[in-house]
Amino acid sequence: MQTTVRILESLEDIDPNAWDRLAGSNPFVRHAFLHGLQATGCTTSETGWAPCHLTLWRDEVLVGAMPLYLKDHSYGEYVFDWAWAEAYHRHGLEYYPKLLCAVPFTPISGPRLIAESEADRALLLKAALALAEECRASSLHILFPPEIVVQECEKTGMMLRRSVQFHWTNQGYRNFDEFLAGLTREKRKKIRQERRRVQEQGVTFRWISGADATEADWTFFERCYRKTYREHHSTPYMNRDFFLHIAERMPEHLLLIEARIDDKPIAANFSVLGDGALFGRNWGAIVHIPLLHFEACYYQSIKYCIANGIHRFEGGAQGQHKMARGLMPVEKVSAHWVAHREFRRAIGEYLGRETQGISGYVDELNERSPYAATS
Length: 375
Fold this sequence. Notes:
Number of helices: 11
Shape: globular
CATH superfamily of the largest domain: Gcn5-related N-acetyltransferase (GNAT)
CATH class of the largest domain: Alpha Beta
Number of domains: 2
Number of strands: 15
Structural class: alpha+beta
CATH topology of the largest domain: Aminopeptidase
CATH architecture of the largest domain: 3-Layer(aba) Sandwich
Helix content: 25-40%
């Protein structure tokens, strides 16, 4: 049997079923999600996300894949290497382009070297490193891979970097009050106060499954999302066409939580379902109501998980404030290869110190757990 590696600048010509058979249950590496980002103009060379997906074929059958992008910036990644780029610049070197294996704009762990066998994953990784050298990229970065891929990356000499996210775990709670009962008295009181203040403004909520969401629902959410980015002096990564694209092709994985006053929508939260988890992704509001963000993004999401027997809620990257809402720190790992020998050594030393700092930070956070000792 003949094994070949091909670089695809678009997933348009590949059979979605063949890709999804490899991708498994993780919704973020499904064909509809990744191809949708490119087809709607979110990940293109013009936006600094030039697709160059690696695929592995055996006798014309797809047996491996790696979502890969050639980038000329570091936006939308959630593993921050701006300091590395600045150091290159100070020494008169070019940090961009770089190669990135990740799901764009999505700090969620999942398949990266998408293949059934260790041997095929090794072939994909070898091909990615070869491509990095061939296109004279400064580096290759694999963000939020599963543990088995972390180990395989480390065997090749790639450097590991740790970061912290905050996740909520369902302990078999029967309702939200039972979840609150497991918290310390101080945290329980604070959450009840926050929720009461939102309720006193007359805010109600509607959970809208992807199958039930209308075009008007998605249009309103995108309006909220765009307004929130604008208020933070930034440009939104995704657009209305993308949300409509995935709403049509993978509705079973989507959830909108809409906040309303007098039966009129005022805010919306977008999440993705899959792999036994609810992944909080984006939110926005057209009016400001104090504490609405915590209710719409955290408390309603936790309520939804309890009501639907979902094991885990991932609140996204960073955000120590999430601990006060019952989310706990979880370490995540990314893998990095740097072409320049001296920078590789310097970055490796830095990551060694950073890892110790992350470990101490997580220990400190766990000592301040919002949960009562008997929980």
